[in-house]
Amino acid sequence: MTFIRPVLLFSSALALSAVAAAAEIRIAHVYGKTGPFEAYAEQSHNGLMMGLEFATDGTMMVNGEPIVVIEKDTQLDPARGRALLEEAYGDDEVALAVGPVSSGVALAMLPVAEDYEKILIVEPAVADSITGSNWNRYIFRTGRNSSQDAVANAIALGAPGVKIATLAQDYAFGRDGVAAFREALAGTGADLVHEEYVPSDTTDFTAAAERIFTAMKDMDGDKRLFLIWAGGGNPMGKINAMEPERFGIEIATGGNILAALAAYKDLPGMEGATYYYYDIPDNPVNDWLVQEHQARFGTPPDFFTAGGMAAGIAVVEALRAAGTSETDALIDAMEGMEWETPKGTMRFRAEDHQALQSMYHFKVRVDPDVDWAIPDLVRELGIDDLPVPVRN
Predict the structure, then answer these.
(1) Separation between Cα atoms, residue 13 and residue 245, nearest integer Å
(2) CA-based angle 148:72:327, to the nearest 5?
(3) Would you say 25 and 60 are in contact if contact means Cβ atoms under 8 Å apart?
(4) What average pLDDT does range 208-218 have in this prediction?
(5) Which of 119, 236, 286, 377 could, after both became Cys, cross-link 281 (CB 3.0–4.6 A)?
(6) Which residues form the Leucine-binding protein domain (predicted)?
(7) Residue 351 CA to chain centroid, in angstroms?
(8) Residue 390 confidence (pLDDT) above 60
(9) Of 6 and 150, which is predicted with more confidence?
(10) Which residues of 208-229 are buried (b: 16+ CB within 10 A; e: fewer)?
């Protein structure tokens, strides 16, 4: 008996250790950590971790259990994104997942959430079809969708007699964005008169721009070329160098990350609508984010940092409200859930789990002492100002 007791104690300790290890909430961040959208991905991950920290008062615990974040790099490959999400749900046994960056990757991942009956919080992929025609009940999105971008920019740019052409990337993000923008313009009196789509890796926009100029040059009234673009290529700078003002055409676009806003300095007075700029929202969550991000990284928080933080806070608030990481309880807690973010209050719409949120009508101001153009606030467009359609 003297030899059995230590063995029993050791076995009990192992069992307790296994229980303790199991008593954690695992979250997968499945996102394009490497590839053309690397800058977006880094912001999104930093924001996610800061959101989890903020919402847990620095403890990284909720409901008495530690939160563990597992990172997986899709490399912007839809098939890889799908496989990694399967791995996260199956092998890693995560409670839920967040991501990805690319709309194309997101669309490949949506059926996996349904197959495994586990939640995927989409952040920051934008295509309408994610919470539209390809949606299922396990999908929630904290990021804005194409319709939110479109409605906000239609309010900022549309007016009777205005003629608008679009240039967009030829995949879900661009095509969904233009479709939503076309629909949103219908109530403004403006006309969408020409559409151009080019591959995402386009660097020479000459042919597309010339087709737009030809289509619009003889039209009367205010004329604008609205760009829907993500990533590199710099279509705005290159088309602006072609002097569209020769034909009375003004360039317009939505907001972007700080690095991209540097190109906006060539277009003082340009108007549009943006998802986030660190100096616009006035609330305690954004105050904390701006202060902490500046202290930790030496820069203000950017576009996708705010989105990642909104997702991280949503995760904690949902787990706290549900009292468990069980999927059906989380869905019940999240449908209609309101929570505070760097952009103010967000709300998951029950019908499609899209986060309703503010957008910001801006006008570009140039300060020679600032490396990027400053999108000064013209008007905050709140949840009630944005008639975002349900598309599923």
Answers:
(1) 76
(2) 65
(3) no
(4) 97
(5) 286
(6) 24-365
(7) 19
(8) yes
(9) 150
(10) bbeebbebbeebeebbbbbbbb
- Overall pTM > 0.70: yes
Q: Is 125 exposed, middle or buried (0-12, 13-18, 19+ CB in 10 A)?
A: buried
Between the CA of residue 21 and those of 60, 71, 99, 168, what are the distances in Å?
A: 15, 19, 25, 48
| Of the candidates 382, 361, 186, the residue with the CA atom closest to the CA atom of residue 283 | 382
In our burial notation (b when 16+ CB lie closer than 10 A, e otherwise), range 15-38 reads: eeeeeeeeeebbbbbbbbbebbbe
The burial of 160, by beta-carbon neighbours within 10 Å (0-12 exposed, 13-18 middle, 19 or more buried), is given as exposed
**At 146, is the secondary structure helix, strand, or coil?**
helix
Give me the helices (H) in the chain, please. Answer: 4-22, 38-55, 78-90, 103-116, 146-157, 172-185, 206-216, 235-240, 258-261, 284-297, 303-322, 327-334
Q: What angle do CA 291, 292, 293 make, to 5 degrees?
A: 95
Q: Is the pLDDT of residue 199 over 60?
A: yes
Among 190, 120, 184, residue whose Cα is nearest residue 391: 184
> How many Cα atoms are found within 13 Å in the side-chain-facing hemisphere of 101?
26
Q: How far apart are CA 313 and CA 304, in angstroms?
A: 14
The H or E element spanning position 386 is none
Closest CA to 54 of 317, 352, 332, 232: 317
pLDDT, one tens digit per residue, over 39-51 is 999 999 999 999 9
CB 261, CB 220: distance < 8 Å: no
Which uninterrupted H or E stretch holds 35?
none
Q: What is the pLDDT of residues 214-245, one digit of tens each?
A: 999 999 999 999 999 988 888 999 999 999 99
- Nearest alpha carbon to residue 277 among 307, 302, 312: 302
Phi-psi region of 255 (alpha: psi -120 to 50; beta: other; left: phi over 0): beta
Closest by CA position to 353, among listed 335, 379, 338, 369: 335
Where do the domains of the chain lie, and which CATH numbers do they carry?
Answer: 25-144+282-356 (3.40.50.2300), 147-274+359-385 (3.40.50.2300)
pLDDT in tens, 264-322: 999 999 999 999 999 999 999 999 999 999 999 999 999 999 999 999 999 999 999 99
pLDDT in tens, 55-78: 999 999 999 999 999 999 999 999
